[in-house]
Amino acid sequence: MSAATDLRELLADGEELTIVCHNNPDPDCLASALVLGRIAAEAGIDERRILYSGDISHQQNRAFVNLLEIDIQQFDPAVVHDRPAGSLLAFVDHSRPGVNNHVLEGTPVDVVIDHHPADGVEARFVDHREDVGATATILTEYVRELGTEVDDRMATALLFAIRRETLGFLRGATPAEYEAASYLHGLADRDLLRKLSSPSVSSATVDAIADAIDNRVVHGGVLLSHVGRTSERDALPQAADYLATLEGVDTTFVFGIVGESIQLSSRTTDSRVHVGEVLTDAFQEVGSGGGHREMAGAEIPLGIFADYTSDDELLVDIVESVVTARLLASLNIEPDDGDSEAEND
């Protein structure tokens, strides 16, 4: 049997489904959760919920949830860890308990559908394809094979997710993404796609990106920067994307203090650098990090850093020193190789 058929048979034996998104879910994760819920409904599961941890702070992600009217709830440990018999647990766009989610390590998982690099993925049903560009591509394959009704809302969600995850088919796109997009194109709401593509940007996000520009330090083709303390976690990948367009720069790392953790986002166009592996190597002992060759992220609890001082400015300086040292060591770059462009402009 195919993966889609196997999934439907597993869902048909369940009485309820809890879909857990990764922390700070993006359109690929959200669209995949939405569509898995639809497949579960057609398999006979009436009680379904989508949970997430962290924040939906990126303006594009907020617009995605609001315009597509996605019913999503904050993570509830009791719902996940005290499930009754017949209650299924699913991960979409991530794969392991305790990694980029708040599920306890060792929690049994029933369904995993993901495209991110990972080892040791375990579940009753696993479709883990690192060779595709988006998890939404896999879900599109499922609905086509199963004959699931695809309305304009679902088609729009999937098509936008694929486009966003691949940066308009320029990053990590495979023939599977083009095939999925071709199928979805005629079904999607084009006006809604336009609205999702150009949401308003908050002033806090603009300020955070401006801080990243001011704080940049370049080591050859590698740029390191930070935004200090911010409530705009999703300004980090936006800053990393923007700074990656700087002439002479092919790899960017941007960090910020968000709540009680240090968040990092990275981008590269250098085929010699795998930023997912760089972040894993740099921070696996103190936090979690990883992702694709071209894009990745990391999260480190503030922990002992916060015990040094209550002064945010001093705290940022301490964090910057430690994060920079770990990144440069992982990249095999000597600390003296860097030049602060902000000071030289």
Keywords:
alpha/beta, 3'(2'),5'-bisphosphate nucleotidase activity, 2 domains, inorganic pyrophosphatase (n-terminal core), hydrolase, DHH_sf, 345 residues, single chain, 7-stranded mixed β-sheet, globular, Diaminopimelate Epimerase, Chain A, domain 1, Oligoribo/pAp-PDE_c-di-AMP_PDE
Question: What topology emerges from the helices and strands here?
Answer:
Blueprint: H1 3-12, E1 16-20, H2 27-42, E2 47-52, H3 59-67, E3 73-74, H4 77-81, E4 87-92, E5 111-114, E6 125-128, H5 135-146, H6 152-165, H7 175-185, H8 190-197, H9 203-214, E7 217-219, E8 222-229, H10 235-243, E9 251-258, E10 261-268, H11 275-283, E11 288-291, E12 295-301, H12 305-308, H13 312-331, E13 339-340, H14 341-344
Parallel strand pairs: 1-2, 1-4, 2-3, 4-5, 5-6, 8-9
Antiparallel strand pairs: 7-8, 7-13, 9-10, 10-12, 11-12
Helix pairs in contact: 1-5, 2-5, 2-6, 3-8, 5-6, 6-7, 9-10, 11-13
Report on this structure.
The chain has 345 residues and is an alpha/beta fold. It has two domains: 3-197, inorganic pyrophosphatase (n-terminal core), CATH 3.90.1640.10; 204-344, Diaminopimelate Epimerase, Chain A, domain 1, CATH 3.10.310.30. It is built from 14 helices and 13 strands. It has helices spanning 3-12, 27-42, 59-67, 77-81, 135-146, 152-165, 175-185, 190-197, 203-214, 235-243, 275-283, 305-308, 312-331, 341-344; strands at residues 16-20, 47-52, 73-74, 87-92, 111-114, 125-128, 217-219, 222-229, 251-258, 261-268, 288-291, 295-301, 339-340. It has a seven-stranded mixed sheet, with helices on both faces. Helix 2 runs antiparallel to helix 6 and helix 6 packs antiparallel against helix 7. The longest helix is centred in the C-terminal third of the chain and has 20 residues, at 312-331. It is globular, with a radius of gyration of 20 Å. The relative contact order is 0.10. The model has no long low-confidence stretch (mean pLDDT 91). Keywords: Hydrolase. This is Bifunctional oligoribonuclease/PAP phosphatase NrnA. GO terms for molecular function: 3'(2'),5'-bisphosphate nucleotidase activity. Its EC number is 3.1.3.7. Residues 18-162 form the DDH domain.
